[in-house]
Sequence to fold (547 residues):
Amino acid sequence: MAVLCCATSAYPTHTLRVTSAKVSVCSSSRVSVPQLHHSDSPFVPEVNKAVDSLSKEFREVDNLVARNTARVLRAFQRVKVGSHCPTYSEFEILFLSVQWYTISLLNMGNQNGLSYGNDIDKHFGGSTGYGHEEAGGREALDQAFAEIVGAESAIVRSQFFSGTHAITCALFAFLRPGDELLAIAGAPYDTLEEVIGKRDSGGLGSLKDFGVEYREVPLAEDGGLDWDALKTSIRPHTKCALIQRSCGYSWRRSLSVAEIGRAINIIKMQNPGCMVMVDNCYGEFVEDIEPPMVGADLIAGSLIKNPGGTIAPCGGYVAGRKRWVEAAAARLSAPGLGVDCGSTSGDIMRTLFQGLFLSPQMVGEAIKGSFLIAEVMTAKGYKVQPLCRIKRHDTVQAVQLGNRELLLSFCEAVQRSSPVSSFIRPVAGATAGYASEVIFADGTFIDGSTSELSCDGPLREPFSVFCQRDSSSTAQLCRVVFLPFAGHENDIGWSTLYHIQEHKGGEEGCLDMNIRTRNPVVSSKNQANGRLKTDPPLMLSSLVQAS
Ligand SMILES: Cc1ncc(COP(=O)(O)O)c(C=O)c1O
Fold:
């Protein structure tokens, strides 16, 4: 097995001195850091070459990060994000609140239509129970998010389980019996199949169960939108057009915001009343504009992807037109409860704010990582999507590996190179929401977070791996270098090229596990109705044994 040697600057032109002797981490036979001399580069020549050749692209990414960070910063400043300040007594807080309120009235502080009200120092305080006692954090986060994506309104909540959940709330916000949902970018992401009723949900309440029809406009041959078909695609009862910005598990191009804007114009020309909803997963901050700025009525996504900045522990968002955001909120909670309830602890509130602030930077690192993967894997003869040096529209880099074994080995190698659960060998299995067997590798601090280093892929032709991102392109770089595809080093021909330490046989301390379900034993016996039953006591004991 190969190990990650070290991480250093994203631009590996300097040499590195590591004077310590070989350091064993975790299990001595599995992970160790080799000694590097000052003349050594931590990167092999091909990677050095790739980085050198990407300096223009990296500079553009830096500029993008600067523009997006400035936009986020402006929004945070405008909504006056403030931390909880325990040194104030309640009386002082009351006094300051009154004083601030008076000043803001005099200054017409709410002239932008935003009421910043009693936001004094409590944004990270969170709330309990119904969440009615929330002191402004929830509202500030929603307002900041809405401003950042150019929407009238937003709801950013830890209570969204995932991107699929947020998208589902958004779809159920405006689709009613007799309406039609039209996916205009080909098949939507796998987990939406049961939501739509494209795949049987077992009578659990898909859109189809509620009498909502569904249709798709297949992608054009070049993997982009079929513009000609789109011009005549909207029917009188087409209530919503769904656009998936990122590629999902398809070998297709991700869409630019400009393309989304062009599609929206074509849709609205046919029927101005047709809503446009964008699945924004993996697209946030990859450009300096977002779909609501080009007319999308609603967008939705996950906080354990781009906008959580690697530190939001959970959650999702819906943003867009106020009326529909409220309706989506009513799906999340209940009609009548809307956006003004639901508690979130202070710890989480802070990470949602901080994660959003860090997000442009993390997305920038992910984009650099995707450029590197594309460059190195292309040089190795693999097909990649997007192609090398093509402007990115999401943070996903797909690599066509061509067979099941290579896909499994790739994911295994990524898992082994991860900071968390490196001792686990990911195995493919059934996962809730997915029809195909899927393999996930995410040795991440946040369970399932694809904001950190992760990759996954469905075990189906053409056996592509989808590398979502890494919070550090440097680390990504190292991992690209050190991906040995366990057991396939010779096929790839890398093991002699790179600073790799071979892990000698004996997978002691290694635990096989479906990373997403955390189920260590994946067999047909564990599956019921296509879902895996997990067995926490077994899982725990296996982990204890493994460590
Ligand atoms: C384009 C796209 N949409 C939706 C989803 C579903 O997100 P989640 O896994 O958070 O439910 C994904 C997941 O990877 C995706 O790639």
About this structure: Residues 146-355 form a domain with the Aspartate Aminotransferase; domain 2 fold (CATH 3.40.640.10). The radius of gyration is 24 Å.
